[in-house]
Amino acid sequence: MSDFPSTTELAARVSQGEISARDVTERALSAIDARDGQLNAVAIRLDKLARQCADRVDRAVARGEDPGPLAGVPFTIKECYHLSGTRHTLGREQLATRGNPESARTSPIIERLISAGAVPVAKTNLSQLMLLYETENPLYGRTNHPLRSDRSPGGSGGGDAAALVAGYGCFAIGTDMGGSIRQPAHSVGVTGFLPTSGRLETRGIERIMPGMTPVALQPGVMGRCTDDIEAVMQVLSEDKKDGCFSPAWCPSTRSLGELKVGYWESDDYFPVCPTVRRAVRESVSRLRDLGVDVVEMSPPDHREVLHLYCAIFGSDGGQRIGEQLRGEQVDWRVKPLLRLSKLPRSVRNLIARVYEWFGDQRLAGILKHSYRCSASTLWQLTEAIADFRQEFFARMQSLGLDAVVTPPHATVAFRHGGSNHMLPAAAYSMLANVLGAPAGVVPVTEVREDEESMTMGGSSQDGPKRPVARESVRSRTDRAALDNLRGAAGLPCGVQVMATPWRDAVALQLMDVLQSSRCECRAAAELANAPL
Predict the structure, then answer these.
(1) How far is it, in rounded angstroms, from Cα 2 to Cα 21?
(2) Alpha-helical regions (H) of 167-273
(3) What SS3 state is found at 160?
(4) pLDDT tens, position by position, 92-104
């Protein structure tokens, strides 16, 4: 797909008859044939549906009709979306064989994309119940990073991210509840976007917590560049049928010189690795060169972000997750989460003290704040999230900020199994979910060889020349972060741009000028251009 600089250009060429939708589709399916044996990004192939949709587009072109704004553009779909004739298991093996009938309906989001001429070629892999920042489950197996087989493309939407880099499609439809689009995009070097909470409807998406509204799962998009995201968002934001109001989608009309942007490089809770810090710094420098008014600001309390998130997510004591995994083979990384969620609060606090003794204050804090609670406590948590939002956006307003540039995650792509002790590192991406704000990630650089080590401790300055020795670090999360950097040279790294609610177009405008190229990062482009 890298022959086409953007989704819009590909759709225009198909509409004008320069290339057939069927030819584009066959190329995408050939890429799956050639590369998915190594990647395992695809959960369910959609060859028959893809050819039917492509032929429909070509017939419309032949008749001189408008085939739609996404004519002939191949895309992938996260497995959790309902699509008629396919399953939506969330990686549950027993459910797939005994109790998960093929869907009789299709998500309105997918219907809208197909009506616009887009061609679905596959449903992609995800982590079990979409719980992990890696992509593996007992049903579909493990998805590999497209550039490093020993690394994960992230999660829970790592299948979409790997598929994009491998050339299976021009964009991907996923979901994001704590970074599930943005962390994989950062990990593999593509663009990922979480719209304002409530902008896109959620009907037709299999969810583990369908009634959890304070921090709710949202649909979103991955693309090779911001042009892809813009084209898809324009289609998805039209003619909502779920009765919910959201402002019309329109591109930003403000010049860069009229925008004011805040930023922070790291925080004291979970200091970012050197490459992420440099990515933010270089992005800030680029914005200043383009005339944007950029000011440094103190970061929000990411500890509070994570604790609010975990408190809401664990407020039922893991009952919902336990019900959905009953009788299932459980992923080895999910098992400890399930066991801990069932423990009485007193036992959890005791284990937290043990974590603290061994220097794991972050994991101890998560344990203390995620427990079964009463309705009254849940209401208090809901109010606390509302207060956090109000305070954060009031601070942005007082500074006159239109958006902020931040780290997308504390580190780069995990080794397989490496996310197990690294939940606190995701607080940077969870912030947008807690705020309900639009946020996107764009690739801007790659890890250098001299960045394969780091210092722990949260200083706003670069670390000393001598790297921290692993054996001198007590915290399990800090050791995992250090281990993750070894051998990371060449891996992609992105930055996150977050705007205030309903100003999605401003976030995309800034993302557009920050992305390292019009399409994938250099390393990803090499794979996409490789012969099939």
Answers:
(1) 16
(2) 182-188, 226-236
(3) helix
(4) 988 777 666 677 7
